[in-house]
Amino acid sequence: MKLTPFHIDQVVERALEEDLSAGDPTTDGLIPPDLMGRALIVAKAHGVLAGTALAEAVWRRVDPAVAYTALLPDGATLRPTDPGQGIEGDIIAEVEGPMAAILKGERTALNFMQRLSGIATETRRYVDAVAPYPAVILDTRKTVPGLRTLDKYAVATGGGKNHRLNLGDGILVKDNHIAAAATYGLTLGQAIERLRETAPHAMKIEVEVEDLAQVDEALAARAEILLLDNMSVDMMVEAVRLAKGRALTEASGNITLENVVEVAATGIDMISVGALTHSVKALDLSLDFGGGAHGAAHA
Questions:
Q1: Which one from 96, 151, 206, 208 is the annotated catalytic residue?
Q2: Which of 292 and 229 is assigned the larger pLDDT?
């Protein structure tokens, strides 16, 4: 997953319209437009950095005179200040130029970086937890509408893999598809066969299964991937055994850091975690002015 300049500009434009469409009377009333300054973006918590290109684009859009200098790349591991240990926190970037423009872009830039860094950080925790096993950590479509590409980019930055970006990216037969098809007489196996007739070339068919009977039916219909939904670990072990050599397996539903290792130990191929994006905790970052200011004094 990559962020293109076009997509970044679109997202940033919408975000700044939301925040600055009615102006900023606080900054305009206090800060002379020609007052120059320098600020640093610093880490206030341990984590994984993501979203630096968005922050740069925010200030470039607010005022091209603002110079954003990235000091750490996306994917960098961040360390906060720890006075007790004599450790200085990591400086992520330097922002220099008109202080009014820096202030106007501050919240939007930090919002992007804090959310994406939070997603990348949580993803890294899951990836590290299952490192001894072959299981891959996946995201889901449980993202902020309009920001899915950003959320999935952050997952990839944290070391996870991306599931479908949109509905057209793959065939995934969920429980409600099965229930809806059953209303006009289709069994699970028949639904899979019908999809095989209409599916784009080389597109795999993934089927959500909730018990071993559905596992057997999906395998008999030659589903390529089984999504094991909210299964107990014991049932998952048996489902993985039945699918071995016949279909890939993906665990989903109520996956947490507390149980993800147990799930990975079943031999599952993939583990999808909605919480990576739908319940993210923003990483604590801040913008601090330093190096003084120069230019006109406020009259």
A1: 208
A2: 229
